[in-house]
Amino acid sequence: MTQNSSQTRTFSSSTTTPDSVSASKVHVRQHVEGLIEHLNGVLLGKEQQIKLALACLFAGGHLLIEDLPGMGKTLLSHALAKVLGLSYNRIQFTSDVLPSDVMGATIFDKSSGQFRFVEGPLFAQVVLADEINRATPKSQSALLEAMEERQVTSDGVSRKLPSPFFVIATQNPSTQAGTFALPESQLDRFLMRIALGYPEPAAERELLKHGDRRALIDRISAVIGLNALTQIQRAVNNVGVSDLLVDYVQRLTAFTRQSSAFAFGLSPRGGLALVQSAKAWALIHDRGHVVPEDVQAILPAVVQHRLRGAADFSGQGGAALAQKLLANVDVVA
Question: CATH fold of 1-17+239-333, please?
Answer without folding.
Answer: Helicase, Ruva Protein; domain 3 (1.10.8)
